[in-house]
Amino acid sequence: MDKDRISGAVDKAKGAVKDAVGSATGDSKMQAEGKMDKAKGTGENAMGGAKDTLRDAADKR
């Protein structure tokens, strides 16, 4: 598993917690930070997936 994918999963989880806590407490700043962390994690996962695809394609040559 690519380190970008692991980092992405951590950021998505952290973001989900911040989003939920911010929503529950009415802290819109924390909720926004959580949404940003989740988006960052999604991007990191996509980057890791692209790297894996390229690596697999190169291995098949």
TrEMBL record:
Start-end of Basic and acidic residues biased regions: 1-17, 30-41, 52-61
Ranges for domain CsbD-like: 4-56
Region (Disordered) location: 1-61
Similarity section: Belongs to the UPF0337 (CsbD) family.
The protein's name in its UniProt record: CsbD family protein
Pfam families: CsbD
